[in-house]
Amino acid sequence: MEIKNIRIAFMGTPDFATTILEGLINHGYNVVAVISQPDKEVGRKKIIEPTPVKKVALKYGINVYQPIKIRKDFSFFEEIKPDLIITCAYGQIVPQEVLDFPPYGCINVHGSLLPSYRGGAPIQRAIMNGDKKTGITIMEMIAEMDAGKMYSKAEVNIDINDTYDDLSQKLQIKGRDLLLETLPSYLDFSLKGEEQNKEKVTYAFNIKREEEKIDWYRSSLDIHNHIRGLSSNPATYTMLEDKELKVFKSKLLDIKVDGMFEPGTIAKCDKNGFIVKTLDGFIHLEEIQLQGKKRMFYKDFVNGLKENIVGKKFN
Predict the structure, then answer these.
(1) HSE toward the beta carbon, residue 1, CA cutoff 13 A
(2) Which of 9, 99, 228, 258 gives a 20 to 30 Å CA spacing to 160?
(3) Sequence-ordered list of residues with C-beta below 8 angstroms from that of 144, at least 6 positions apart, any chain
């Protein structure tokens, strides 16, 4: 069969997967269906929004399927009849019945250098752990989470101020290019794949709510990594009296501030900086959102304050 005629079903949900999907479409691959998570309510007004991957599919006139639970609802694959399934950040465990369906198998575009960071939050975990590099792995899908053979890899550097969004953008592009480079060899069966070293496996489990809160009794670097790893969704947070303050962006500082402060204390809050004491120094909070307010830069936050909050302590 001509490679470009192979029927591909693409499974993905968030922004991260859109670049991969559009790469396939724009390079002439025959994407016959897209499977995505159900649409969700977005924003304060709780407007139902299609998933980012669904938006791309509709743009190109591709049929979209959105089962609530793929393990129970996959009969539509009989209608699609895909020769190959490609997944990228789909968000559900794909059952064995689906994995067995396409004659060319199922491959996944995963946002880490496997066997490190198997799981649903590899980008966040790499940043939060202060890693200097990560990457993309094109891998075989099997029933065990992210445990299949690896067909190709590509590294991506993580800069000290890269947020989740920054690194995600780098990885999307790298993932698209690596997939397009790998597909011809995969489809002519010349790629045998490499088994993962089980002794080097680590996991990147989804972020729990309790992990979102900032612990000010950690180092400035640890807090900075925490903030940028969870920016912009779900974002880290701290409590200012009885209100939640989300923190989206920070900057490391090598300064001294007059006075004795406990970790979590606001040492400075004016147009020149919003500075908080950490275990070993100070950190500048650059983008924040106070409960009930919009996301904003610290200067706009300061302008809207009705009282001096210097000396107050986050909890």
Answers:
(1) 14
(2) 258
(3) none
Q: List Cα–Cα distances, 305 to 182, 242, 283, 290, in angstroms.
A: 54, 16, 20, 11
Give tens-digit pLDDT for 86-144: 999 999 999 999 999 999 999 999 999 999 999 999 999 999 999 999 999 999 999 89
Q: What does the block give as tokens for 131?
A: 């890693």
Cα dist from 162 to 100, 177, 197, whole Å: 39, 21, 29
> What is the distance of C-alpha 79 from the center of its chain?
31
Helix (H, G, I), strand (E, B) or coil at 277: strand
Q: Which of 181, 52, 204, 42 is nearest to 113 (CA)?
A: 204
Point out which residues pair with 270 in neighbouring strands. 273
- Going by C-alpha positions, the residue among 254, 261, 290, 286 that lies closest to residue 271 is 286
Which helix (H) or strand (E) covers residue 26, if one does? helix 15-26
Helix axis angle, 15-26 to 164-187, nearest 10°: 40
Distance, in Å, from the CA atom of 190 to the CA atom of 309, rounded to the nearest integer, reads: 64
% the chain with pLDDT above 70:
99
How far is residue 304's CA from residue 2's CA, in Å, rounded to a whole number?
62
For residues 160 and 251, what is the distance between their CA atoms, to the nearest angstrom?
A: 10
At 1 the pLDDT is: 61
